[in-house]
Design a protein that fits this description.
Elements lengths: L2 H10 L5 H4 L2 H15 L5 E7 L4 H5 L4 H11 L10 E7 L4 E6 L1 H4 L4 H16 L3 H19 L16 E2 L1
Helix pairs in contact: 3-8, 7-8
């Protein structure tokens, strides 16, 4: 997406629909899905949704991938004992989804597996199925983490908040 198209999208791209697309009831459901999944693996999932980027940031070249890494650090997703944090980052204005996995997870899960989850979510979001896309993405991540980073039968301490954050 060219810089001027990105600027236009961040200025006028429907970002104002954040609370309609991610109402409190959906955030609660997403948090419950994250929490339930974390009982079966050693990963920690965070979900962040940002309506848009600041116009000057776009003009300076900030993109969704870079912003996702900033949010990963800001939310301290890296701050888990096993380096097992995973961040879902959704930038609504640009229709971008990024998944950032900490090094403990990245060593075991291939990037194309995360890309497949992003593609499925994008497909749902494009149809306006925000609930379906979000819950499907979280469920797929839970399944992936259970396969590659299974729990050890003990209670997995909840190191990161489960409720998605709206930026």
């Amino acid at each position: 997406m060219a810089r001027m198209q990105r600027l236009w999208a961040n200025l006028f791209g429907g970002w104002f629909q954040l609370s309609r697309r991610f109402p409190a009831a959906l955030l609660d459901e997403m948090a419950a899905t994250i929490a339930a999944g974390e009982h079966h693996h050693l990963g920690e999932i965070r979900f962040a949704v940002e309506s848009r980027l600041a116009p000057l940031a776009v003009l300076d070249g900030l993109d969704a991938a870079t912003r996702a890494h900033q949010v990963f650090a800001q939310l301290r997703v890296w701050d888990t004992e096993l380096n097992s944090g995973v961040l879902f980052y959704v930038l609504m204005a640009e229709h971008r989804i990024e998944i950032v996995a900490d090094r403990g997870i990245a060593a075991k899960v291939a990037a194309d597996e995360w890309d497949a989850i992003c593609a499925r979510m994008r497909e749902c979001y494009a149809r306006g199925a925000w609930r379906e896309g979000s819950l499907a993405g979280i469920a797929a991540a839970n399944a992936l983490l259970e396969r590659h980073f299974p729990g050890d039968g003990k209670a997995n301490p909840d190191e990161l908040a489960d409720r998605p954050v709206l930026l």
